[in-house]
Amino acid sequence: FNNCSISCNLFCEKVYSLIESNLKKIEKNVDDTLRTITFLLGVMYSKAPQNKFLIENIEKSIFIIQYSFERSETMGKDNSIAAACKIITGLKLSPENKFLEILIQLISQYIPLKNDFVENIAALEVWIHIDQFMDISNPVYNKFLISIFETLKFLATRKSSEMNQINQIKNIKMIKTSLISLKSSNYLSEYLN
User: Fold this and answer.
1) How far is 47 from 31, CA to CA, in rounded Å?
2) Average pLDDT for the chain
């Protein structure tokens, strides 16, 4: 799906039904299986954002993410949070959508993601998406913004040996874009003081 997004639209319902049936059968390699399931779910939402089936099944997808998160270990948890991020950015959720705050609260509790560093990019993409309408006086967004600042700090202090060079360059570009272009980045200096 990552390399051919048209296939995501064609096979979305079938893959989704396989995800659901595999959730019921998990006995061995729980973390690997759940990690793969949530990664695939995130890819589907990011590659087929207008897919009617995915839009109609957002509540079920959130349940799958929460279920996977609760039963996963380190990497599986990070992929679950990244999948939550990709639902927000893939569907371009707005404050009118009742699931936005649910997902933001979930994400805020667990970022920065310290096991699968690259998945923090998904959280930064959420920040870029919601910056246009984020009300900092709302405690949900305020907590999210603090978590994002912690994520920026975490990514900025990673050693090059912890992330491969390509991903490190992508992280640096994302951080620079985030800090320069977002209105909420004005709060960063307040946060640091």
Assistant:
1) 24
2) 81
